[in-house]
Amino acid sequence: xxxxxxxxxxxxxxxxxxxxxxxxxxxxxxxxxxxxxxxxxxxxxxxxxxxxxxxxxxxxxxxxxxxxxxxxxxxxxxxxxxxxxxxxxxxxxxxxxxxxxxxxxxxxxxxxxxxxxxxxxxxxxxxxxxxxxxxxxxxxxxxxxxxxxxxxxxxxxxxxxxxxxxxxxxxxxxxxxxxxxxxxxxxxxxxxxxxxxxxxxxxxxxxxxxxxxxxxxxxxxxxxxxxxxxxxxxxxxxxxxxxxxxxxxxxxxxxxxxxxxxxxxxxxxxxxxxxxxxxxxxxxxxxxxxxxxxxxxxxxxxxxxxxxxxxxxxxxxxxxxxxxxxxxxxxxxxxxxxxxxxxxxxxxxxxxxxxxxxxxxxxxxxxxxxxxxxxxxxxxxxxxxxxxxxxxxxxxxxxxxxxxxxxxxxxxxxxxxxxxxxxxxxxxxxxxxxxxxxxxxxxxxxxxxxxxxxxxxxxxxxxxxxxxxxxxxxxxxxxxxxxxxxxxxxxxxxxxxxxxxxxxxxxxxxxxxxxxxxxxxxxxxxxxxxxxxxxxxxxxxxxxxxxxxxxxxxxxxxxxxxxxxxxxxxxxxxxxxxxxxxxx
Length: 584
Description:
- The structure is a single chain.
- By secondary structure, the chain is mainly α.
- The protein has 4 domains: 5-64, no CATH class; 72-210, no CATH class; 228-353, no CATH class; 358-578, Intergrase catalytic core (hpI Integrase, Chain A, Orthogonal Bundle).
- It is built from 26 helices and 6 strands.
- It has helices spanning 23-26, 40-64, 72-90, 102-111, 116-139, 143-156, 167-188, 214-220, 228-241, 247-264, 275-287, 303-306, 317-336, 365-372, 375-379, 385-397, 401-405, 445-450, 453-462, 480-488, 498-501, 513-524, 529-536, 543-548, 554-560, 567-570; strands spanning 5-8, 11-17, 30-34, 412-415, 418-423, 439-442.
- The strands form 2 sheets. A 3-stranded antiparallel sheet has the order 1-2-3, covered by helices on one side. Strands 4-5-6 form a 3-stranded antiparallel sheet.
- Helix 9 packs antiparallel against helix 10.
- The longest helix has 25 residues, at 40-64.
- The chain is elongated, with a radius of gyration of 32 Å.
- Pfam families: DUF6538, Phage_int_SAM_5, Phage_integrase.
- GO terms for molecular function: DNA binding.
- It comes from Pseudodesulfovibrio alkaliphilus.
- Residues 358-562 form the Tyr recombinase domain.
């Protein structure tokens, strides 16, 4: 057995990691306790004793949290029995026609009493019970629920082992309580809604399996017991095999899948996923902080713990929808493989009311003046060349940060007497967003003549370099991450970026705003839409243009699009010519 010792200051501590499967239940990632001694020999003895106790406790917890003590048939019967029990408890308030509170109605009829206030109060109590049941379900507070289930099992003479209250079974019981309370409220309002099929006590779990033993039944329904983790594994292999994913894409998607698995449980099966669960997951996402894994305040906390906190900056609706979209893709794949009949996550995204053009703000001329008239530009004190070049290249070409950061020197050349930049993915360390992003962009005269970019390229070639910004190292996200972190900050709420140092604090104004800015600049000048789409690398929207049409000539693109960019005349940029990076 390990010693699980760690020294903090002059005192030894016992420290052991909580298994991932138990973290959602215990609400912590590790168990840590001071051994109250600085003597290593004494600490070792105490640690061995404590370690043995903790190991036994973890083993017991694993047994208690196991779902294997009840068969699927038994679980279904308990859930249906529990639903029936809740309705029977309330039926004493109803007559055979589901007219609510018959005794009070009789008093009203025979004695002329006003019983409506009393009835309203009782109805409100049911609504309060529903709200409380929903809140408890969201908070995973199942203590009262367990008491009711035990009473139901006693009423129906059902087997209920001590280790039964766990995982997806407990979640399903909680949903049954919510659904039953909704029907009770509907009945007391004079309605008589039908009992959902999965709760009908007169309908066996599955007619064809009535006389099949639990073990045989679970063998015949192995498909429905498939875990979501298996679907994710199979889908990942498929995407990598056909070249749809890179290693980075896989890592990004798995981070989103893990959000759902942390919320619903690592062992959740396809059969356990329903509309209620997806709806709760969506609500939880809306309450989680943006970039929680990067924040010291949140990254070691579980989703259940965070949901009890006041989070000032929750993740954006776009990010919430991204999580739901990726989950829906996985469940669609599960449907295709026959692991589940339908995809309950389909169509669960939150509608976004603002237009695409409003999701990122543009830089106005006041912002641009701040960015290009900073102390670093005036004093020529940028630490690296890319910090000088990235902003003017983005402003006069509309290129994305990764497209700029990954440029090779041979991507900038003269064609038909016009200097162009070739956006492509013709090297292993380069990538483009989509096939339309591969394009030739004529370089603006400010970049060619004023800042002498072609001469800077020649200078780097003479020094033996291959890339425009050799100081940027390749990372998981490519070269663009360096530009993003320098300009936008690290996203941890602590490390500020260049834009914030320039006095731009709007969270919707980021490096990508340069691209929006130049596109809006051209749009306001009513340039040709087809030419503009080729300039910015967007689809033209028709097969005729996208598939069969050839690229426009650099001369035409320069005349109709690039020459219409007039930031060099609207802003004070003359001091940029004095930089050491502008080669005469």
